[in-house]
Amino acid sequence: MRSSWDLTELTNVPQGFRIFIRLLPMEVGDKKLLVLHLKGFLVDCYHQYSRTDPCPNRRPHGQCNYFYVYKRPGADKFLKFCFKNFVVGVWSAAQEHNVMALSDFTFGPLKKKLAFIWTNAQCTDTGLTYPGKKKPLVRKELSKLWSGEHGVTWGKDVFGPSNTILIDDDPAKIEKNPPNTAILLKTYRVTDPEDDHLEKLQKYLGLLADAKDVQKYMETNPFELEEENSVKDPPSEAFKRDDSQALDLLIAKALSLKIIDESSSKSVMLLLNEAFRGSPHSESQLKGYALLLLQKYNEIIQLSDTSLALAESTVNSDSSSQDFERSQRQSEDDVLKVWWWELTARAKYYLGRLEEAHELLQKSKTVSRNCQIDSIIDVLNKDFPLSMSRIRDLLHQKVAGNEAFQAGKYTEAKEHYTAALACIGDSLPFFAVCFYNRAAAFQALRHVTDAIADCSQAIILEPMYTEAISKRAILYEKVRDYAQCCLDLQRLRTFLENQKLQVRIGQSTPGRLNRTEDLRQVQAWLAKAKAEMRKDYPLDYYMILGLEHRCTSADIKKAYKKAALKHHPDKVGQFISKGEGGVHVRRWKEISNEVQREADGLFKSIGQAYAVLSDPQERSDYDRKEDSRKLRANFGIYEIYRNAQEAPGRDGWKSSRG
């Protein structure tokens, strides 16, 4: 009989997924799960045929395969502490033969106490590589351990976010895990003989071992290392070096999210480092660009305001400087302003605030004439192209459409909104507004199906677009699709409930709308829609095809062909295709899938309408039921009026409007 401490290979798993775990359940007690990394955390490795010796004055602790291995200072003491206080496992992104050899060397006799050894086969492959390297970019998803994947049945329902700690030196590998479940430690290099990070980490892990909830403790007491620049480096050089490493990591994260492509990331980083060489504001400038890569647009605006205010105060404090120094400082200040204006213009463009973006680009153009910063703007335009002419075209069509709509020229308004949607760009909130406005024009023209489709597009681009959700609910109600109407109203109710809760706990301001009254109205509307849905009325097929009841068979056939061609799931992606190469690459793919799904439902309703109205017998039966429904509806209104007239003490039924 095997001991429960034996580390055994599972053979009944798919090829290429060999894993090593304990066969029998472990007595974990109150111990938490500690998942350790190897290379870069516990050891540093260099190939034995490397051209340069990283540390000629220090002999390696051993050799694994073709690699010289150096243990991190304090590693043996640290591991004894870990096995005493935690359930310990290993998860490395390296290949199996290297991981097993390195585990033998690193843990020695303690290896038999490991709960599991996972390799790159258990990592999630993103299909990407690190900037400028062929090394695959993978992720370690703790959910695989918690759910009992790959044979780790002892972990299922035993470990979770509250009692698991993952340690790694690469933020890209741990980013998809729940917050406060991982510790990011500085990569160990043998060239750093003063490394004492394991000692500091051990003290922190001792506190985590006693904590009831790992996540809650780490949230209020995050692990921090006091980093100091080397005294050998001038501040500016160390500053630029750290910025380069930070940007490299942020770009790797952006790559893992498939926001940018690898071919441009390295060249952009080098160009930015060169452009900001010696700049006292380089940290925030590089951070701003990284935030743009990660689509953190509101954070960019906040950082821009802070950076520009700080720069302005610095310039004002140098009033006693010589004229030449003031002139030089003013030139640097202009470069800083242009950079932030260009960066913030793009952030506001992607947020749908095109007027503000255009104003910032105009300011940038005016100032940039006096300073040499074309290279900086070129860097931004490489991955985030934006021009004033594009913004002017979009705003012109939208404004013209709004003016035509206000004048009652709905066809003209529709054409202007369509022209705006045909422009190249990926400002999702702006296009959502254009779809919503065009839906209003279609509604005024009694093209209900077209209006529903445009509302759906607007909601897909902006999921919390409450006006579009409300309008689509109204349109579904018009065609008597009460099931879809109820879904939209439930969505609207949930949004209003969340808004009300945020106001209550102080995370949001009340605003101009009375959310309590809005919520009450939506709940009443939802109750009415559910009551109508229970009556099981058929859809209004005439309205779906945009026809009158007295239409001919030829009219029905013509309307069906037009609607089917326009709303076929394979045809609705024309707008989506123009944005697939933009900034929101991954989002465009999600949008495309959602548009296809919405179009499929609408297309089925169109086909159902044609199937009924094109058949003389079915149309006759449908018309007879429609007449009966209208008669009952009219009779119901008459009953309400008669009861109001006969009620004692009442002079008659009065409108609530007075």
Automatic annotation (TrEMBL):
InterPro entries cross-referenced by the UniProt entry: DnaJ_domain, DnaJ_domain_CS, FCP1_dom, HAD-like_sf, HAD_sf, J_dom_sf, TPR-like_helical_dom_sf, TPR_rpt
Domain J: start-end pairs: 540-626
SUPFAM superfamilies in alphabetical order: Chaperone J-domain, HAD-like, TPR-like
PROSITE patterns to which the protein is assigned, alphabetical: DNAJ_1, DNAJ_2, FCP1
Record domain FCP1 homology: where: 27-208
UniProt-listed Pfam families: DnaJ (PF00226), NIF (PF03031)
Record's protein name: Uncharacterized protein
Signal peptide: none
